[in-house]
Design a protein that fits this description.
Blueprint (H helix, E strand, L loop, with lengths): L1 H29 L5 E4 L3 E8 L10 H21 L5 H24 L2 E7 L2 E3 L1 H23 L1
């Protein structure tokens, strides 16, 4: 029962952020010239068409379209085979998948990833943040597990 509750909560939280990311991407795409800075030019709202992968690293579109579902499926498979699953692992995995899925949707629909949050020298989106937070949570969960053993 506890297992199902963790999965439901993790999917709900991740699904909420995936939906929020898609809504914000829609707003950014339909208003590409609207910019707003809290601290110019370091923090704010700025539309950016990311043709590359993370950190705008260039990679051919067909490669991205092919690799993304393979990576998502690999993460799901690898995680399902793990014997030890703490609550943090459920949320971490679903956050990573939600972030990757949100960016993948952009790739399929627009051949780019829509970024809109200016932070220092980068423009990112919530999907990117989900992937990073999920990875950090997963690493922290693994370290906690190692200390417990």
């Amino acid at each position: 029962m506890k297992y199902k509750a963790h999965i439901i909560l993790s999917v709900t939280i991740s699904g909420f952020f995936l939906l929020l990311d898609q809504i914000l991407k829609f707003i950014a795409r339909t208003n590409p010239h609207s910019t707003y800075y809290i601290w110019k030019p370091w923090i704010g709202w700025e539309y950016f068409e990311n043709k590359g992968i993370a950190f705008s690293i260039p990679l051919p579109q067909p490669v991205i379209i092919l690799l993304t579902p393979i990576i998502i499926l690999f993460i799901m498979y690898w995680w399902s085979k793990k014997k030890y699953k703490a609550a943090i692992h459920y949320l971490a995995t679903t956050l990573i998948i939600a972030g990757a899925l949100s960016n993948f949707i952009d790739r399929i629909l627009f051949s780019i990833t829509i970024d809109y949050l200016r932070i220092a020298t980068s423009v990112i989106n919530i999907g990117d943040i989900l992937i990073v937070i999920g990875a950090i949570m997963f690493i922290l969960g693994e370290r906690k597990k190692e200390k417990a053993v």
